[in-house]
Amino acid sequence: MAPAQGPTGKDPMLDTTQTARDPLLWNPDIAPLPRQKRDWTWITLAAVWMGMVHNVVAYEAAAGLMAIGFSAMQCLLIVWTAYCSLFVAMWFNARAGTEWGIPFCVLIRAAFGPRGAVIPVAIRAVVAIFWFSVQSYAASQALDAIAASLWPDWSSLHLPDGTALGPWLAVTMIWGLHALVAAHGIHRIRNFELVAGPLVLVVAGAAALWAIRICHGTGPLFAIPSTLHGSALFLKGGAAVTSIIGIWASFAVNIPDLSRFVRSQRDQAIGQLIGLPVTAVIFTPMSILITSATLVMFGKPIWNPVEILMRIHNTPLTLAGGITIIVAALSVNVAGNIVPAAYDLLSLFPRRLDFDRAGITVILLGLFVAPWLWFDHPQTVFALLGLLSAVLAPITGIMLADYYLVRRQTIDLAQLYSFSGLYAGRRGWRPSALAATGLTLLLLLPPALLPAGTLPGQDAINAVSWFLGIATGALLYTGFNRHPLHRPNDL
């Protein structure tokens, strides 16, 4: 079969009579999506991103930035820079999903080969399941605290051995809610996100207006000057941008999982623009305003929204705020973690799973992670997730270089589902992608793992590690595939 020409605007679908496709690489849920089934508009994608950006981790991010010494306006600039950078990477990487209707786990085969793709797919699945577990357990703690404030007897519930029953009931309910939302495929998830994303923004806006009334203005936090200057401002600012990006770095890899449902490139671009940098730069000052109000009311800034609800002692507000926090956690988890991890598991076990079963498997694996055992040590958790995100940076660069520089936006869809096709490389592995990933990690990981001051330029490398990882991975991969002694598909 001749390579499909793209981007063209015509439907480049895989022929379902194609006998060359391997059952270990093909599943109806990861097959190319026909254009007539791509019904997401820019509103849909913007709502999905709104639901993901509005979460407790993003809310508390400003707290960490201000604690380092940044002013409120510098926090806004850092957030804007991080999300604009993410938008650019995701916009480019999402285009392939929208054009060809395939998820990340299939698209990555062009660069790494059908067997080599297992490595980035497995890494992405691990990141998604860990994030799912973290967000879900945080939501269960919020539900437990809210239930205790609304029903005093909740805290007195115990198992026969004396173990508090309330937290386990909260875990059960939160995991069950995730299963309910994720059941019946992507269309139920889409409908949930269309409500959840805007709802969280409306509630946050109302809370920000309440905060302005309490503070009689923007509040004391906006008046605190920066304590960082010169090189310290540059290095810490770069590290802060990289940290914010780290929350979503893995999604820069698998954005095709969502963009494959969008009807046009225009919808994809507008939806992500509104849902990412625009929403983030609106949401960040809301979190600072609300925290300013807590400084006025309680004499100290409180960045945890659950603690704020507990201190206000207002039952209707506690109920409304608690539901919003839980909806926000569900929103980011379903679209940001369950969907990509489900596709990743589908590509690893295509003959045993469909999308619904894969989603339930992700939820169950999140339980086996047992976050209650290590949740009190968040530095360890986020250090691990940060390293995994660093590993994904060169993969992002390789995907972009493969699609735009090596393939010139041309893909033969049928051969993405074959071990012996155009993208098979050497026995299913493409050494150029593996070598580019390995060499880039040799540059990124030592500065990140070794104690500060061990290596020259260590702080500068860490400050721009995500950008450096993308650029280095892309340059190395492109260089390997332009070697005059080899054809690109051999490497």
From TrEMBL:
Protein name: Putative allantoin permease
Origin organism lineage: Bacteria, Pseudomonadati, Pseudomonadota, Alphaproteobacteria, Acetobacterales
Alphabetized GO MF terms: nucleobase transmembrane transporter activity
Major place of residence: membrane
Family: Belongs to the purine-cytosine permease (2.A.39) family.
One CC-aspect GO term: plasma membrane
Organism: Gluconacetobacter diazotrophicus (strain ATCC 49037 / DSM 5601 / CCUG 37298 / CIP 103539 / LMG 7603 / PAl5)
CDD domains named among the record's database cross-references: SLC-NCS1sbd_YbbW-like (cd11485)
Compartment(s): Membrane
